[in-house]
Amino acid sequence: MELAALFNDMPFAKLLGIRVTEVDEGYAEAELPFNDDLRSHTWGSVAHGAATYALADTVAGAAVISLSQDVSPTVDMRIDYLAPATSDLNAQAEVIRFGSSLAMTYVEVFDADDTRIATAQGTYKTGGQGKQTPWNDRQENGVDEDAE
Question: pTM for the complete prediction?
C-alpha cells in the first residue's frame, strides 16, 4: 500500500478530513478542508487549534515513516499558532534529523490565502519498537491479516 493511501485510510484522519497529498523521502504534504465541525465555537469561523495540530502531526508522521518504513509514534510536538485558521489548510513537513531512535521534523501550516497559520516541531520514535506494538498487533485488535 502506498504511504499516502495508508495515512488517508487512518480513521482519525478520515474523521477530520485530513488528506495526505504527497510523500517523498523525508517530506510530506497534507490538506485539511475547513468545515463547521472543526470550529472552536458554535459562532464564528475559526477552526479549533486541535484540528491544526492534528494536521501537523499527521503530515510530520508521514514524512518520518517515509524514511523509517515502520511504525514511528509521536514522542513530542510543539506548535506555535500564528494566525486564526478560517479556511482550508495545507501543511508541509520535513524531517530535519533522522536517527536510529528518534527523528525531528519541522512543519509549516498555511491557509487558502497562503497565510502562515502555524509552525510545529515534532519528535518521533524511529526504532526499538519491535513487532509487538499496539500498532502492529492486528490479530489482537480484530483485524485478520490473511483477509487482506
Answer: 0.87
In a domain, 95, yes or no: yes
pLDDT of residue 44: 85
Q: For 75, how many CA atoms within 13 A lie in the half-sphere containing its CB?
A: 15
Statement: residue 148 has pLDDT above 90 = no
**Domain limits for position 68:** 3-130
How many angstroms separate the CA atoms of 137 and 47, rounded? 34
Measure the CA–CA gap between 40 and 64, rounded to whole angstroms. 29
* Mean pLDDT within 90-108: 97
Long-range CB contacts for residues 144-147, cutoff 8 Å, separation at least 24: none
